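Students often ask why we bother predicting the structure of a whole assembly rather than each chain alone. The short answer is interfaces. A chain on its own may look different once its partners are present, and contacts between molecules only exist in the joint model. In this exercise we take three input lines together and write out one structure for the complete complex. Read the inputs first and try to guess which parts will touch.
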Amino acid sequence: MRAEQQGNCIIVYDVKDFDADHVFDCGQCFRWNREEDGSYTGVASGRSANISFVAGNFQDGGTLRIDNCTLEDFRDFWCGYLDLGRDYGEIKRRITENDSVMRKAAEFGSGIRLLRQDPWETVISFIISQNSNIPRIKKCIEKLCTMFGDPAGEYRGEMRYAFPRPEQLACLTRDDLAPVKLGYRDKYILSTAADVARDGGASLAAAAGMNHDDAQKEIRKLKGVGPKVADCILLFGLHKYDSFPLDVWMKKIMNKLYGFDEDDTRGMDAYARSRYGELSGFAQQYLYYYARFNL
DNA sequence: TCGCAGGTGGTCG
DNA sequence: CGACCACCTGCG
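Now the answer. The structure tokens for the assembled complex follow.
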């Protein structure tokens, strides 16, 4: 992998297993929007950018273009955020071994990568996601950022905003949040923001160092965080790859492809975590993406 | 109009 | 501990 600066953007060569649609539209993130040219524009950790990928040959992968980015930004942040240091080919080899179903799913979503997102942002984002749908979730989050987040500069003619910090939400009232249209989730957001602001994110950081079950138990102390949201936070925000979030789509696809009863989440979780272990999260993403486009 | 959408908290047996 | 069910809001 080789990166070089060209004007206001970074070109990364020889990037393998990357497909912008797979990465930004596989349900893990909510602040990236597809442009007409197939690139994605978004904000992560207060940095706005436009990301596009041009597939090259099979051996060397392709070329990744990150606009509005310096070499320093790339090294300090985007390289890690986009998880470019990980060999997804090896991951796919391991989870598809003797598993024709997984092979099919991994082939379908072959360019998926797990973004290394901010813990706090994933906590709030996935609390908002409960019992809702993606367009609405994205609207809520964007509104939350424009109303309460710090301005993060103008990009492509639009002012961009960082995700609000815990203390920026903890001081609000339900009336303040009303324009965001969070519905009944507003009280969960306020309670969770107060908790995280109080300990400065220490409990989140602590959870990152625990085993899966203890970490889940810790995260679930937050209001509005049940088993599904907790696993999303663990996987997407705390980068605990042995998590296997089970939402309605996963339940459907696990039923269809592996024959589990749709309400047997215990069984599915036990199966996935024993079979895929530290790679459960990757397996989940391939299956989820496959389900979204094949059910 | 009404059910449903990336679930969860509260309540009850 | 497991099985219900109400819940904000927007959309078809």
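Check your guess against this: The beta strands of chain A are 2-6, 9-15, 32-34, 40-44, 47-55, 62-67, 151-155, 158-161.
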